[in-house]
Amino acid sequence: MALPKIVVLGAGYGGLMTTVGLQKELNYQEAEVTLVNQNPYHYVTTKLHEPAAGTLDPEYARVEIASVLKQDKVKFVQDRVIKVDPENKEVHLADGEPLKYDYLVFGLGSAPETFGIKGLLENAFFIRNLNGVRLIREHIEYMFAKYNTLKEDRDDLLTIVVGGAGFTGIEYVGELVDRIPELCREFDIPREKVRLINVEAAPTVLPGFDKELVDYAVKYLEERGVEFRINTPIEECTPEGVVLKGGEKIDSATVVWTGGVRGNPLLEEAGIETARGRVKVDEYLRAPGYEDFFVVGDSSLIFNEEERPYPPTAQMATQQGQHLAKNLTALIRGGSMQPFKFDLKGTLASLGRGSAIGIAFGKKLFGTKASILKRINDWRWYYLIGGLPLMFKKAKF
Ligand code: FAD
Ligand code: NAD
């Protein structure tokens, strides 16, 4: 009898955790598990703001997929998914033959939410993947290098605008605060010439988060030269910079958009019902109307007890992956699935190398203590996918 085919799309937090879980749970020859990812490596999305600023070597945010898979239990296909076809139970790839499945795990992450803002896709940078963040780091360095070679005063070359002061925006600004003094030394530029502006549409930075922690973060970052523009949506992004609501222009050669995410467009294109691209999954993480189509990570949508959507996080994706691996194993063995319940352990946001804010174990944390806990939490991910050897190789203070 043919083995049941499980195809996992995406080696991010959700997909890789599902795959690593399956290779642990399943015995040999119980199922044919295939993982598809566009790169031969997994990038640690939660660390991308660091190489994007130049404070971390990208190598530390990259894990070779082959190094965490057992090749006799999981087949890895490096290709780009271009279409999912739930009616025919097929996945179409950019280069390879279509893949048939009995169970599909969709874990292709998110896409930037641009709200249709004119010029963003063309002119802004996005913290999305490893090559994208290498480009941001190189671009900033190039702008600094160019500044002193020109005769005219081009302050826009030294002005960095970060659009959106959610967690990604704040964590990125925190890294830049550490990086800018180094860049100034390297390129002989006075620190006061550099502007770092974080623009936020909502009336506060980190909207919805604990006020005391937000105040701490704002004070910490302002003291290190960050200019916050709250209550001020970006309405357009041009090759020269950004246009704010009301018409004010900020000339900037570097605009980094951190204004939010939506689900992967392949789901909408497959005719699956979505809200901002995300699929409201059932208690077993299945897309509505499908017994064999599971969605994990940023493309899934789950509501809390107050009927408010949980934000898409690595914490959520990891727990989903762990749970789904067990459920798929049960299904294959003729058993029944257990409903998924998210267990929010806390939220921590870094403010550069030495500081962070957050809530963990029901307590508010600030400064060094929060920063250490954030690092330990980062290391946990390496441990989950590759055990102690990977953790010791990649963990970095
Ligand atoms: P991802 O981890 O993004 O993985 C998606 C994978 O799919 C990638 O490997 C990608 O290459 C692959 N892929 C995409 N499209 C295709 C395709 N067409 N074909 C083949 N492969 C494809 N969350 C937290 O809980 N804690 C944090 O501290 C935290 N920090 C963050 C910091 C930053 C800078 C950012 C940007 C996010 C952070 N998050 C954090 C959010 C967290 O990173 C995401 O929620 C999480 O990565 C989602 O996991 P995922 O598996 O859905 O997608
Ligand atoms: P987000 O949606 O959390 O924040 C986006 C911010 O951009 C919001 O504050 C929004 O008001 C603002 N914005 C939207 N339109 C704007 C405009 N036109 N002009 C200016 N500002 C505008 O998105 P994110 O920060 O990219 O985070 C994505 C997900 O990843 C979230 O679920 C977040 O919780 C998670 N994340 C978690 C961590 C962490 O736990 N440390 C870190 C990064 C991201």
Automatic annotation (TrEMBL):
Source species: Melghirimyces profundicolus
Membership in a protein family: Belongs to the NADH dehydrogenase family.
GO biological process, one term: aerobic electron transport chain
SUPFAM superfamilies (alphabetical): FAD/NAD(P)-binding domain
Family matches, as InterPro entries: FAD/NAD-bd_sf, FAD/NAD-binding_dom, NADH-Q_oxidoreductase
GO molecular function list: NAD(P)H dehydrogenase (quinone) activity
Keyword check for DNA-binding: no
Gene3D superfamilies in alphabetical order: 3.50.50.100
Domain FAD/NAD(P)-binding: 5-321
Keyword Flavoprotein: yes
Keywords: FAD, Flavoprotein, Oxidoreductase
Name this polypeptide is given: NADH dehydrogenase
